[in-house]
User: Which sequence fits this backbone?
């Protein structure tokens, strides 16, 4: 392959990678569940019943060098995820509820009986609208240092953030 062909291919790949996605600058971080206080920023779109989202939650739980801005984007394939997200966003200690849900502690509970508030429902709906506007249709999806990572790919995350 010629060098010119390879450069054209790289440019096309970059255009495809960047099309249809929002940048972190266009996302209202005030609507996110904020976890942590570290200097590195991670924007995360997650589903409480997604097994890969749960692996990411466990990984990030021990990192003290990041601040996570979590947006719930429950997928249709997970019928209980919306209720779980609303439950988290309805609670007083949202971070604790997030960890309980993402660790599976709530899985055996009847999601119809989870206490939710009108504010929690509204917050979840706003977060999902933000995900839709940003073109996010899979979970987990991360925005880290201007890059978008779809799926929990620890090596790519650590390439950007460094190892814990």
Assistant:
């Amino acid at each position: 392959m010629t060098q010119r062909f390879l450069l054209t291919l790289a440019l096309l790949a970059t255009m495809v990678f960047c099309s249809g996605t929002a940048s972190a600058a266009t996302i209202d971080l005030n609507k996110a569940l904020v976890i942590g206080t570290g200097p590195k920023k991670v924007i995360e779109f997650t589903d409480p019943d997604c097994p890969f989202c749960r692996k990411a939650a466990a990984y990030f739980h021990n990192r003290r060098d990041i601040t996570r801005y979590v947006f719930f984007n429950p997928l249709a394939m997970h019928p209980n995820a919306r209720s779980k997200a609303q439950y988290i966003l309805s609670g007083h200690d949202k971070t604790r509820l997030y960890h309980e849900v993402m660790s599976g502690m709530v899985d055996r509970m009847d999601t119809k009986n989870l206490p939710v508030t009108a504010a929690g429902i509204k917050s979840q709906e706003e977060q999902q609208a933000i995900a839709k506007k940003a073109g996010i249709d899979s979970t987990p999806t991360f925005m880290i240092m201007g890059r978008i990572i779809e799926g929990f790919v620890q090596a790519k995350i650590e390439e950007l953030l460094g190892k814990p």
Notes: The longest helix spans residues 3-18.
